[in-house]
Amino acid sequence: MPELPEVETVRRALERRVLGRVITDYEVGRPAFNRPIPAEALRGLKGSRITAVHRRGKYLLLHLSQGGRLVCHLGMSGSISFSGDEGHVRFRFTAGGVTVRIHDPRRFGRVGCRLPELGPEPLSPAFRPDSLFSALSGRRAPVKALLLDQAVVAGVGNIYATEALYRAGIRPDRPARRVTRAEAGRLCREIKLVLRRAIRAGGTTLNDQAFKDPEGRPGRFALMTAVYGRETGACGHALKATARPIAGRTSLYCPRCQA
DNA sequence: TTAAATTCCTGTAAGC
DNA sequence: TGCTTACAGGAATTTA
Prior knowledge:
Elements: H1 4-18, E1 23-28, H2 39-42, E2 50-56, E3 59-64, E4 69-73, E5 79-81, E6 89-95, E7 98-103, E8 110-112, H3 129-136, H4 143-147, H5 158-168, H6 181-200, E9 240-241, E10 252-253
Antiparallel strand pairs: 1-6, 2-3, 3-4, 4-8, 5-7, 6-7, 9-10
The protein binds a DNA duplex (16 and 16 nucleotides) through residues 1-3, 34-35, 58, 73-77, 88, 104-110, 116, 139-141, 145, 148, 150, 157-158, 207, 209, 247-250.
């Protein structure tokens, strides 16, 4: 599933291929996403030059010369490709002769021009131990539910929340207000570390399908996870799932290393 | 105010 | 072998 490292991998590929190019054509898939693409997002798209390719959390932002922008979210099954597979194309555009296709079998993705309120970028200096600690303090919800909340920190999903909590030694179902200041500091550092590593690996590709970068290459981080998608943790202990899912996600942890 | 549940959707895998 | 069922999850929305 595309989380921050996967989206960043896509962003870099888009930057290489379409930055500075003029959009000559676009087409909305039938059916498109669950939510229709607002007319506002498509207005003036043809003839616009792509002046910047940015990322905010899990959102991709294509800034356009005519002042607007295209905001894309890949949902959980979305991917972008420059060539090959034509299946489940929900939106496509051509810029400078390069065709960019957004595929999304489950149609959870979105294209528009609005960005919701998001928490700090986890890799920026704005995401600090003390700010994470204050976001957690007083909250009864499980700490993992808050990491998945995009208003607390932008871009973290199930894979990287699971990994960071394991590395920080914190059980995912611990009430957030029971996380100490020191632990919040460790958690903050581990989130940054795991995201940086995953970006370097080109993201996480589970199984054979799942995520591929726009050139069709799988990410290599699945081979490096300590917990996610495993039965035994990197510590060598058997992993357990929490009694109930957290924020609707199955949550693995090590009963011996995480408290 | 916060938190939990529900909704969207379909490819994959497990079970009978 | 072939069918049915459960499961996966990001974020918006609804309910408690």
